[in-house]
Amino acid sequence: MAERITDKLVREVQPPASGNRRIYDTDIKGFGVRVTAAGAKAFVLNYYAQRRERRYTIGSYPDWSVAAARAEAATLKRAIDRGDDPLGTRQETRAAPTMPELFERYAAEHLPRKAPRAASDDRSMWEKIILPFFGHRKVVAVTHADCDQLHREVGLTGRKVRANRVIEVLRKAMNLAVRWGWRTDNPASGVQRNPEEGRERYLTREEVGRLTAALSTHRERASATAIRLMLLTGCRRGEALTARWAEFDLAAGVWIKPSAHTKQRKVHRVPLSNSAVTLLREWRSAQSGEFVFPSRDGRPLTDVKRTWEAVRRATGLEDVRLHDLRHTFASILASGGQSLPMIGSMLGHTQAQTTARYAHLMDEPLRDAAEVVATFVKGPAS
pTM, whole model, 2 decimals? Predict the structure, then answer.
């Protein structure tokens, strides 16, 4: 049945006794109105794509007027003539992965590759910031403007560095989405980061002496000894607390950190100083069990926060973070003239730019080396 679709026709068309009834337009081939037995009316477009008949629902009446539906049908017909398949595109969009599905796959495939603490931090950013912001948005529908807005809103809460970290996590996830064929570009790329002031707090020789003395007499022996090991080796907090005796060859003076415990997820072989070996031997003589720094239940310590806070107050080093011990270790090496590759190897860095932050600390030993050349060239004093 075909007749020109008008407002009057659509308004007065009666529903069938059962099923649905369709009336097609005489002007635009395939354009029509469908009415169900319940009286619901909608505009449709019939067309062929890849030798298959398709029926595309434009929209319901009266939400769509006849004029608007007719114009949409004409636009769709032009797209179909170019080879498009509007219904197929709609179905693909509906089946497209959502942001919660992106997180689910990100958590399953990417987070296990990260250190436990870093993975936990990523998960927290997803659950507390990223997912509440995007809701059930389709991954393909996320725009550059959305990512800019997310970064801006987190920054407006005063957490400017956190905003940068959130975008880093989102950018990685979107890179994976591109790899998985979920979209063709990364909308989180190019977001302008908030300025970050690099923290450079290195303990002086006198401060190291005060800290070591306080740790040596602290009553919480396990946590205090763990902190001393961090200072002597430059290791991360998690590496020290999860260490097992099987990782150490004290006779050879070597600590072989397994990949599961390192941030770079690679085995890291670290030579130990005589002081570190002596510390561990003395501590080993009073220990039994698998873990180097066990808690009262035999499992590894999970934190040394209380001991660290007490020692900081006792030594007047309230501005020093636990991670600054790692920076101090590197600074001592740099000031002693060790090369950046050597420092990076000791710290377990995988990228040269990570170690480059200590380059300026090498100025003094390099200047001394330059003076050796200058003295030679100048010759004996006349």
Answer: 0.54
**Has residue 33 got a pLDDT over 80?**
yes
- pLDDT band for position 343 (cuts 50, 70, 90): confident
HEC states along the chain? CECCCCHHHHHHCCCCCCCEEEEECCCCCCEEEEEECCCCEEEEEEEEECCEEEEEEEEEECCCCHHHHHHHHHHHHHHHHCCCCHHHHHHHHHHCCEHHHHHHHHHHHCHHHCCHHHHHHHHHHHHHHHHHHHCCCEHHHCCHHHHHHHHHHHHHCCCHHHHHHHHHHHHHHHHHHHHCCCCCCCCCCCCCCCCCCCCCCCCCHHHHHHHHHHHHHCCCHHHHHHHHHHHHHCCCHHHHHCCEHHHEECCCCEEEECHHHCCCCCCEEEECCHHHHHHHHHHHCCCCCCECCECCCCCECCCCHHHHHHHHHHHCCCCCCCCHHHHHHHHHHHHCCCCHHHHHHHHCCCCHHHHHHHHHHHHHHHHHHHHHHHHHHHCCCC
Q: What is the pLDDT of residue 187?
A: 96
**Mean of the per-residue pLDDT values of the chain:** 88
Q: What is the mean pLDDT of residues 160-170?
A: 95
